[in-house]
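Translate sequence into structure tokens.
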Amino acid sequence: MPTNTHNLPAAQWRLIHTPPASGAWNMALDSAILEAVGRGSVLPTLRFYAWDPPCLSLGYAQPIRDVDRDRLDSLGWDIVRRPTGGRAILHTDELTYSVTGPEQEPRLIGGVLASYQRLSLALVEGLRTLGLRVQATSKNKPDIDRENAVCFEHPSHYEITVEGKKLIGSAQARKKEGVLQHGTLPLYGDLTRITNALHFPSEGERSQAAKRLLAKATNVETILGYRINWEDAAQAFATAFQETLNLRLLQKELTAEEVHRAQELVEEKYAQPGWTERR
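Result follows.
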């Protein structure tokens, strides 16, 4: 059963909207915020963001051999490795969120599954506000096909689906500084585009992977029959986090320290082949 949130104490979190950015910057900024949270210099943070150019992100331990670099480069897409687990996601035409806070924060305490459950209640409410009849299902031990490179074909610990298809893909990392969970809501566009940047033994297998993906995942436009813009989706989720998790969200800007640290992390880590191209 979902974790009860009715007894959560009132709290203030920071709300940040950042403009579309490269994959390296987006991952560096999530990490910089996590470090700032760990020092206690900023409030727990809910961040909404987007990607420019489109970016293929790999899970922390995913092999680079899953990627067809020639095809990726010909498409003009970016690539980055996430600090969280899971498999590949193509970030484009979507709303991305991240939640960052100390491990003892009541909404994040108790390990991966318990915190997934609490945060998913807010995600579900946001989607329902947008008109989507979604469900959330707990999975203690997701079955993962290690040969499959695409995130949206994989069940997660706490899966959010609509009409039997996965709608939000999320991943979490628990570090000494605290907890980072980020996830993606595809708003519109062709979900099978990701298969164009991944390695397959044959074009027939690429085509089969695209068909499997459409059978298991969907986006907001496909379900509603019309597009929701990024701003409206972000507002719906912000309201849902406040009301569902007993939060007061304070709209703020990044600190100069966070921006500086993110720039360092881009140069030292997230834009480096040694990080992205690990095998």
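Note: The chain has eight helices and eleven strands.
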